[in-house]
Design brief:
The protein is mainly α and about 200 residues long. It has helices at about 1-10, 15-25, 25-35, 40-50, 50-70, 80-100, 105-110, 130-145, 150-160, 165-170, 175-195. Helix 4 packs parallel to helix 6. The longest helix has 24 residues, at about 80-100. It starts with a helix and ends with a helix. Pfam families: Sigma70_r2 (PF04542), Sigma70_r4_2 (PF08281).
């Protein structure tokens, strides 16, 4: 009898699962919700980590992180939020890895390239693989529409992985101009991709 009642009240929407988990702390509920999106999480992890074993480890680590994080944050769109959490987890992993295996200059490079400066410019909510692929396909044309200084700075900083100082040396712009061109270029790319 109890089992039938439980099945009848079983959550179906992501928001219902989130509410049920927050109310009860039941890891089975969180596990069922996470399982729905595990393919997306793995795809995001593999996109950044480019290693099957590391991506699988990241998927497991993210579940452990969700146990705590989901109770602390107000989440309205679980899928979008989870995509961001997975992406940030992978970027942090790569950053730590780069600091560990890099030479002495890498620490300076990491300080100059904060995680907020990653080139993710597609509109919020476009987080499934098809949306990401569509925006990536349009990115070269959007880059060509940028004013020359913005395009050059974005190319050097993001695509060629130069530091702020290296971009300034190569272009002749001062450091403030480089940062401004990068910020404006990212904003203009996002606007262009939203059209």
């Amino acid at each position: 009898m109890f089992f039938k009642r439980f099945l009848r009240n079983r959550p179906t929407a992501d928001a219902d699962f989130v509410s049920a988990y927050k109310a009860t702390g039941d890891l089975d509920v969180l596990g069922e919700l996470y399982e729905r999106h595990m393919d997306l999480v793995y795809a995001v992890c593999f996109k950044y980590l480019r290693d099957e074993a590391e991506s699988k480890d990241a998927v497991m680590q993210l579940f452990e992180q969700l146990v705590v994080d989901l109770r602390r944050h107000e989440v309205t769109n679980f899928k979008s939020w989870l995509h961001s959490v997975a992406r940030n987890h992978c970027l942090m992993h790569l950053r730590k890895q780069r600091i560990r295996v890099g030479d002495g200059d890498t620490d300076l490079l990491d300080e100059e390239r904060p995680l907020s400066d990653t080139l993710v410019v597609w509109p919020d909510g476009d987080d499934d693989a098809l949306d990401v692929e569509r925006h990536l396909a349009r990115l070269p044309a959007a880059l060509n529409q940028l004013p020359e200084p913005q395009r050059v700075c974005i190319d050097l900083f993001y695509l060629q992985q130069k530091s702020y100082a290296e971009v300034a040396d190569l272009t002749g712009f001062d450091l403030k101009q480089v940062k401004s061109y990068l910020q404006n270029g990212r904003r203009n790319l996002k606007i262009s991709l939203q059209k």
